[in-house]
Design brief:
With about 280 residues, the protein is an alpha/beta fold. It has two domains: about 5-160, Rossmann fold (3-Layer(aba) Sandwich); about 165-255, no CATH class. The protein has helices at about 5-10, 25-40, 80-90, 115-130, 150, 165-185, 195-205, 210-225, 235-250, 265-275; strands at about 15-20, 45-50, 55-60, 65-70, 95-100, 135-140, 155-160, 190, 230. The longest helix has 21 residues, at about 165-185. The two termini are about 30 Å apart. The relative contact order is 0.12.
């Protein structure tokens, strides 16, 4: 299942779906779901995971940002199991709603040391009981691997890393937002990148999520800010590679350094490639 089909899937009496997303983009997906569920299902969206003390309603603020509002009616007794309680709350909820449950997949995953047969049974029961209702559940997390008994019940989609075109759109949009913010603070914010250089920057950022790209832009703009303002230029390209390399290193992935030994003929190959670099652009 594709992410774009998630809402139509939930609207087709399929009450539970799973969305596998990298952690940096979870908030982006929650925000997208909140907007889409309201638009296409006329449904409120709620969020819960073991890290929050209550159930929260997801709202879109006036500036377009995501806001979490605690649900006052959700009152879990201290001695009750938090996950079983939220299942019971959803089952007895009187209205309609899309309930995003974060990071519960270890309890219903195959070969997981945290697998709980009680929770697994609860999920299967909910699947059948929610079918005739307007209540839906979205399991959200990273590296979701459902138990065999759920694989044929619960549709699954994986949010892919952004393409070059998506990164290009995001770069332009986010830099525009940063420029607007700089104007409000009476700071000079100049973008000197040409179209081809924007594409090169996008290629340098391949492998990052959109949220990680936003983090990189904010951090790099902050580091380059002077009394004269900030200039976004081609220096951002190697910095994007450096930022991505650092993230990969934190994940245990080390990239080898370029060879410094002048192998015969490679200087000619490098020169040939540099002369024809436009052939490798998106435009070409």
């Amino acid at each position: 299942m594709k992410l774009s089909n998630l809402l139509s899937t939930l609207d087709s009496q399929i009450p539970i779906a799973a969305v596998d997303v990298l952690s940096p983009d979870e908030a982006t997906i929650i925000q997208w779901l909140t907007i889409e569920a309201f638009s296409k299902l006329s449904s409120p969206v709620f969020f819960w995971n073991l890290g929050v003390s209550t159930l929260e309603q997801c709202l879109i603020a006036a500036d377009g940002g995501l806001v979490f509002k605690p649900v006052a009616e959700y009152k879990r007794p201290l001695q009750s199991d938090p996950l079983l309680f939220v299942f019971d709350y959803i089952a007895n909820f009187s209205g309609n709603g899309v309930f995003i449950l974060g990071d519960i997949h270890p309890f219903i995953a195959k070969n997981s040391p945290q697998l709980s047969w009680e929770i697994l049974s609860k999920v299967k029961n909910l699947y059948h009981r929610l079918k005739p209702t307007d209540k839906r559940i979205v399991l959200l997390g990273q590296n979701i691997q459902l138990h065999e008994s759920l694989v044929r019940l619960i549709p699954y989609c994986e949010v892919p890393l952004p393409s070059i075109d998506q990164i290009l759109l995001h770069l332009n949009s986010y830099l525009h937002d940063l420029q607007q913010s700089a104007r409000e603070q009476e700071l000079t914010f100049t973008v000197t990148l040409e179209n081809a250089e924007f594409e090169t920057l996008s290629r340098a950022a391949l492998g990052l999520t959109l949220e990680e790209i936003s983090d990189f832009l904010r951090l790099t703009v902050k580091e380059n800010l002077t009394n004269d303002g900030v200039v976004v230029d081609t220096d951002f390209i190697p910095k994007a590679v450096e930022y991505k390399t650092r993230l990969l290193s934190q994940m245990g992935i080390e990239l080898g350094k370029p060879a410094i030994i002048p192998f015969g003929g490679l200087d000619l190959l490098r020169e040939w490639l540099m002369r024809r670099r436009r052939l490798f652009t998106q435009e070409a």
